Amino acid sequence: MSRCGTAKTRWASAVAVRTLAMMPMTRTTADRSAVRTLLRLWPYVRPVRARLFTAAAVAVVASCIGLVIPLVLKWLVDGPVAGHDPAGVWLGALCLLLLGIAEAVLFGIRRWLVARPLSHVEAEMRAGLYRRLQRLPVAFHDRWASGQLLSRGTTDLMLLRMFLAFPLTFLLVNGVTILVGVIIMLVQDWRLGLVILGPAVPVMWTCAVFERRYAQVARRAQDQVGDLTTVVEESVLGIRVVKGFGRHRSQARAFRELAGRLRGTELRKARLLATIWGVIVALPELAIGAALVLGTVRVADGELSAGTLVAFLSTALALRWPVDSIGFLLAMTQEAATATERYFEVMDEAPEDAGEESGEGTAPGAGVVGASGAHPESGGRPTPVPGSGPAAGGRPAPGSRPAAGARPAPAPGSRPVAGARPAPVLGSGPVAGARPVPVPESGPVAGARPVPVPGSLPAPRAEVCAGDGIRFEGVRFRYPDAAPGSPPLLDGVDLHIRAGESMALVGATGSGKTTLTALVPRLYEVTSGRITLNGVDITGIPREELRSRVAVAFEEPTLFSATVGENVLMGAPDGAGKPELDRALAIARADFAHALPQGTDTRVGEQGLSLSGGQRQRLALARAVVGRPEFLVLDDPLSALDVHTEAAVEAALRQVLADTTALIVAHRPSTVLLADRVALLSGGRIAAVGTHRQLLRDNAEYAHLMSGEREESR
């Protein structure tokens, strides 16, 4: 094999291994009880329990009707047939026909009773999973492969619906049928009954061994389905990279490797199922054969009537299906238990608003459509990014301090903006803990607007300084999956962005710029220290309110499979319409949207891949500014624009920045010049704060970063 082929094979193997390692295994199935696991479904089943119990009762009656047929046969053989009574024979045949019709009708009613409620249960569980995924922190989504989450919301829930519709009912029905049938056989002839019961012990032992082994294989298979889903999803979303680098064969090898592992696991399941089915079918058949021989001898000896033997054997044959079905019913039960376990591995994760009162419940019965936002398919705006669920009470971050009281900071010389309330405080001293580079006192920023304070926050709000802007106080952050003993990414960040001021954040690659911006809307929680907005600790602000006040434009723009208008208006409050949309598109210089085939009603496709990178970035910027946010966080928002478009967007952004408090991750001097001041992030701390000219003159590291070296943020 060539060196190139060897490298591609290694790459394919690496893809497969990485995919297998992406999902955190929270527990194994070896020590779990299938019954205890399945009982966790009860809250979802409780609302439809009446129909399920009725369906089970109907199925039991139908099965028992089937056991009456052998008794009619006994009467028919010993009576009309033995007495040569044609009328009695016709009467017996009519009874058998009516019993068969009744059995079929009752089983049809059972199916009708369970179909609609179980579809509702599946929809409720899927909606609950989706709502939980929206409320889980970003750190959770960083750890979990998307294919594993997709398989839990599709394949696993389908298995649960099938279990509730069939195995759950028939484990009960078949158990009752076997019990009643055995009693009937023992009453007819206890000796033959004991012969039939002979295989019971080895069958039960085989079932116990099978259940334990099959549970482990079923878990492995369902996890591998998730791994395979991840590879398919990545291949589809990254098709340009796969084709651009000629890696379609290598990606296909990675797929085949994972598919081969899944095939091997499925074959292992098939072998286990074949083994138990062979035992369960063979042993009862041998018992029935022995009973037939013994019964025939006894009939010949006159110890047993022919009708009794016919009824006994007919009853035994009627029990073949309930006994033979034990194997695959147990298999489906184990798969359902595994699916339940996988489902609750996600549902048991603590949501980011665990300590807050939320109007968006996950309890069953709350309705299939969640309160976390409208889907594009339903006519509303696309579902927001995780964390958009309503919340009303803050969960303090580890190591955070309670919200401080008012910070009096008079604003000397400030004037009210025409037509607005009095302007808030804008001045402030140097940033605490910043290293040398003098920062002169700056006056109020022209055109700053007052910062409104929503009245939904706690009562002490009246004492808080309404114009304090954004403060980072001793902020430390370490990623949850960081290696033990590794230094924190951010280690004691102190920074003050005055109200109405725009601050550019500059630093080397991997210095933590993007991470720092993600802490403001609480996409991640600080490890220690605190962040305040207008003097209020963000951990004391409900997430829904916090994210309505802080708008974010990420460096890598994400668009949903919806229209241009729906994507942009996601960042606007309810009730926003065309005027707000047109204004945001104009600011972001995204006027190209009006030239699309259906204008702003044009669907952009999954991930917005029908648009160029610059077009996607401009739409993401429009989404950030459409709601006139109080605080604006921009992560290198112009990186994909050409110089002419960048200049036009910057000119429009200056108007927006004059009316908001902004933190801008910047890599180019042109973006830095949008800001009033610049902060240099180095070594996990703010190393210097000042104007662009000051830092360019006095700070060698900043001068090096601005000398033309293009950086990317972490």
- What is the makeup of the main sheet? 6 strands, mixed
| E-strand count | 10
- The percentage of residues in β strands lies in 5-15%
Question: What would the average pLDDT be, to the nearest integer?
Answer: 78
- What's the CATH topology label of the domain at 41-347? ABC transporter transmembrane region fold
Separation, N- and C-terminal Cα atoms: 38 Å
Q: How many helical elements?
A: 25
Order of the strands making up the biggest sheet: 6-7-8-3-9-10
Architecture overview:
Among the domains are: 307 residues, ABC transporter type 1, transmembrane domain (ABC transporter transmembrane region fold); 173 residues, 3-Layer(aba) Sandwich (Rossmann fold). It contains 25 helices and 10 strands. The strands form 2 sheets. Strands 6-7-8-3-9-10 form a 6-stranded mixed beta sheet, with helices on both faces. A 4-stranded antiparallel beta sheet has the order 2-1-4-5, with no helix packed on it. Helix 1 crosses helix 13, helix 9 packs antiparallel against helix 10 and helix 13 packs antiparallel against helix 14.
Q: Short summary of the structure?
A:
By secondary structure, the protein is of the alpha/beta class. The chain has 25 helices and ten strands. The strands form two sheets. The protein has a six-stranded mixed β-sheet, with helices on both faces. A four-stranded antiparallel β-sheet has the order 2-1-4-5, with no helix packed on it.
